[in-house]
Amino acid sequence: MTQPTPQTIGVALTALKAESALWTQQSERLQRVANDATALLIEPGGVTVVFDAFLDAYNEVTRLYVQRSTDGRDSTAAIADTLAAVATTYAEEEKANLHAQHRLY
Amino acid sequence: MAYALTDFIRDRQAQHARTAEALLRAHARLRDEVMPAAASAIRAVQTSPAPWLVLGRGLIAPKLQQIWNGLSSLEGLLATLLSPIQIPFWLWHNAERWARLEGEVTGMVGDMNITNREVHLRWHGAAADAYDKVLPAHVAAAAQLGTSADTIQRSLTWAGTAAAVFYAALLAILIQFTAGFLTAMATAMSVPFAVMGIVAMFMVISVALAELGALVVVGTEVFARMKIWMIELQTELNDNSAFPNRRWPPSRTDWFADATVTDGDADWSVVR
Question: Is A41 within 8 Å of chain B by CB?
């Protein structure tokens, strides 16, 4: 099997880092979504008579939305970190000539 | 030009601002002018030296007390109903914010579209292939957040409108009551028609209390039905297909974290 050129490896690593950055952006986006949704809770702080049942249910939906967004922030951040670590490991092993030694690219 | 959501909301906000101002003014008038005037009128009837009023005081006094109690109940109920008068504004304001959130999450779905990215063309191997399989669950979760934000936005827009209609109906009742009660009170102050006026005062208050009670019942029923939208949204946000175990899909990083070749394989392999 032919060995990939340093340029090919460089392009592949760039793509992997871009992928990691994309997930970081999504994680940051979901953090913003969670923050914004938290600010959308409606807590009048008094008796609202006819609106109580609706507002309670709305606030419950908003809390669920915040939870899902916060989970999403953590999950996407983990993917971003893992892809970054993959790129780092690959680059370090390439620098140490391990791919050539093992004939694995 | 299309009549956008923001235009719809602006129109309703302006209309509710006028309703709220009129309601608060009418309530203040009831509390600060009509009730003190009614108290004076009731005192005047109670202390009138007119012989037939003196003779009929035993019958009239309880009715006057009922009128005063009714008036106090009406004012108290109005004060309670008016305390959350800002709710239509909050609901519309939040509807617009949810529309922006929907745009944000939809942007995420676009960013994660696999055709926009190169990593899948540059890498293969067990880990790279496993990574490909992780992506769809996250896109589905983001899409569900977008759909839910859109539904929340629509629900809040209509809930805000329903709340504004509730207050418009309240204003109509209050205006009708105030006009009727002042007329009845003027009649009660004219000695020849005092009894007619007292009966009319009692009737006007009874009708207003009944109308207010009916409005509260209908309003509560309408918002209880709107609550169903929110229950459905809770179901969507707990849906196992988009949010397994009621959470955002797991990262599954163990599927694609192995980048080393020192273990004898290349799970991330550069495409040549």
Answer: no
